Design the sequence.
């Protein structure tokens, strides 16, 4: 429990610092918001280009994602959409374009500074059907059966208990609802020094679990129609690796069969679930 609390506090502090910067400033620092040490950013090596998505708001894009979950989320007009780890509101505003003024979007974020930034952005845009709630996605501040769609972009890696988050997603989805989540997974083991590095955890790399374990968590929660909608390999540049491991260790890591991948996963909560899944 003590280690879990330390991880959560580290994540909250780091993303509070990032919230106070713009995307360009954050991208210039390989250690994120506080230390300029050259090279590429831990946070930005995985980010995708939102420019072609309707509803994209550059001011709300801090470059912290690893996919485009809203592009694959099958959001319909009038849907209630929940975004986990909503940051400055980027995916919420894309989702709002999809669900329209008839729908509703709720962003949940752990960090007070991010919530404040997202609310400011929503107010400037005049979006009255987008709201932001501060909370822990392991225990969401939402009633059960509220959401038609849940999205999330490179956030579950920051959560120590990923199984609990999937249980919460299952709880807040309506029967027949679904999620589309972009996240980072592994095939093979990271070097211990990378796994133990706080910066790499906050950058969504050290917090990654094995791809098959990730998919099994989804299955075990009771979701069906599990589909990988997109997958891409992530290459961590030497300029980042050598901040944490030696050049020899970095070369050994690159020569190993370990792969770091961004995946976008879709899964559905059935209209009527199997006995024991608790949704009938």
Sequence:
């Amino acid at each position: 429990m003590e280690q879990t609390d330390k991880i959560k506090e580290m994540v909250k502090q780091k993303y509070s610092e990032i919230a106070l910067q713009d995307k360009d400033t954050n991208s210039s620092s390989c250690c994120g918001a506080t230390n300029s040490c050259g090279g590429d950013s831990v946070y930005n090596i995985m980010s995708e280009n939102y420019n072609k998505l309707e509803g994209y708001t550059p001011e709300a894009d801090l470059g912290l994602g690893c996919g485009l979950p809203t592009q694959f989320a099958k959001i319909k007009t009038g849907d209630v959409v929940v975004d986990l780890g909503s940051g400055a509101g980027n995916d919420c505003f894309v989702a709002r374009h999809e669900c329209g003024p008839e729908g509703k979007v709720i962003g949940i974020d752990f960090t007070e500074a991010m919530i404040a930034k997202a609310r400011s952005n929503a107010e400037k845009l005049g979006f009255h059907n987008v709201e932001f709630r501060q909370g822990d996605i392991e225990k969401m501040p939402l009633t059960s059966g509220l959401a038609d769609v849940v999205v999330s972009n490179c956030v579950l890696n920051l959560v120590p208990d990923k199984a609990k988050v999937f249980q919460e997603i299952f709880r807040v989805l309506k029967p027949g609802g679904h999620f589309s989540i972009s996240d980072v997974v592994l095939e093979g083991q990271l070097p211990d020094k990378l796994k133990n590095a706080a910066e790499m955890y906050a950058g969504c790399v050290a917090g990654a679990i094995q791809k098959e374990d990730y998919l099994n968590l989804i299955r075990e929660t009771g979701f069906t129609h599990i589909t990988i909608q997109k997958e891409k390999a992530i290459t961590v540049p030497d300029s980042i690796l050598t901040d944490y491991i030696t050049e020899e260790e970095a070369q050994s890591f690159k020569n190993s069969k370990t792969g770091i991948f961004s995946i976008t996963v879709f899964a559905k909560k059935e209209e009527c679930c199997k006995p024991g899944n608790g949704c009938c």
Notes: Residues 27-43 have pLDDT under 50 and may be disordered. The longest helix spans residues 2-19. The chain has eleven helices and eight strands.
